[in-house]
Design brief:
alpha+beta, Glutaredoxin, four-stranded mixed beta sheet, 7 helices, 4 strands
Length: about 170
Amino acid sequence: MSVNPNIDLATAEETLTPVEKSVLDEVLSANRDRPGATMLVLTLVQEKIGYISPPMQVYIARELGVPLSHIYGVLTFYSSFRMSPLGRHKISICLGTACYVRGGPMLIEKYQQILGVKVGETTEDQRFTLEICRCVGACSQAPVVMIDTDINGRVNPADVSKTLRKYE
């Protein structure tokens, strides 16, 4: 398992904000000696901050006394962990069976083109994060796109720009 290539180990901890360092210290001091501390610490940090940045990964690894590759391996193995902040609006394109056969992949291409990001990424202005999901339970309306908690059914690639304008 390799170490996160986005981390400058020499300066990583210097880039932590005071709030991030405070949250990390609080979570680590309460949990560092617990069995299986890695998963617990990562989960609590993400709950409090929303993601676990590369500098946070370095700090957590050092404080827990585990290799950085272990932290990175956990973060990349479990899809529930994020290494960058979510955008203000989360776009989830359904790729369940009904949505897939009714155009889900075309919607992904269109959203990627318009937003200038790939699945799993957030736009530079932090407005949108683009993700896929497997089923939102609205198969009769396929293809479906969820934006935050709004379900948009029978979405056509031509509708994407108009839909996004509602969230500006």
